[in-house]
Amino acid sequence: MTEQIHEIRLTVNGVEHETAVPARRLLSDALRHDLGLTGTHVGCEHGVCGACTVLVDGQPMRSCLMFAVSAAGHEVTTVEGLENPDGTLGPVQQAFRECHGLQCGFCTPGFLTTITAGIAENPEPTEDEARDMIAGNLCRCTGYQNIVKAVCRAAELARESEDVQ
């Protein structure tokens, strides 16, 4: 018995992709293996660690828990899509750089997407709100202090860029 293959159209980082996947192909696998977007990392494969988090219609989603066929018709944003239109670092990326919010970097893509959605919802988070924002993402290296600083700095940078426009 052969597995049925589905032709789907995925919009990822503003670019439309056509691909053929089995119904059980996870979004994380489709992004990494079918589309070559390897910035999304797969950690626990159970939705616990948050390393695979992407944005689906602007909301954080564990891509290891979502089937690729379910993403058809939705806008998916991966870590590769977080830079500014001119190719410079986006506010969350810049804040991670300035605040030394990463060490090994494995969990970073999930944090960046999660924080992007978080500051869109709460553009002026307190430190406690920043901690709540990242509570679903695990990091084994940093101790979270610089990540919390990066959340607050990212919100500040995002507000400043809105003021300029």
Automatic annotation (TrEMBL):
Organism: Nocardioides simplex
Name the record gives this protein: (2Fe-2S)-binding protein
Biochemical pathway: Alkaloid degradation; nicotine degradation
Enzyme class: oxidoreductase
InterPro entries hit by this protein: 2Fe-2S-bd, 2Fe-2S-bd_dom_sf, 2Fe-2S_ferredoxin-like_sf, 2Fe-2S_ferredoxin-type, 2Fe2S_fd_BS, Beta-grasp_dom_sf, Diverse_Oxidoreductases
Keywords: 2Fe-2S, Iron, Iron-sulfur, Metal-binding, Oxidoreductase
PROSITE patterns with a match to the protein in the record: 2FE2S_FER_1 (PS00197), 2FE2S_FER_2 (PS51085)
EC number, UniProt record: 1.2.99.2
2Fe-2S ferredoxin-type domain location: 6-82
Taxonomy, superkingdom: Bacteria
GO function terms (MF aspect): 2 iron, 2 sulfur cluster binding; metal ion binding; oxidoreductase activity
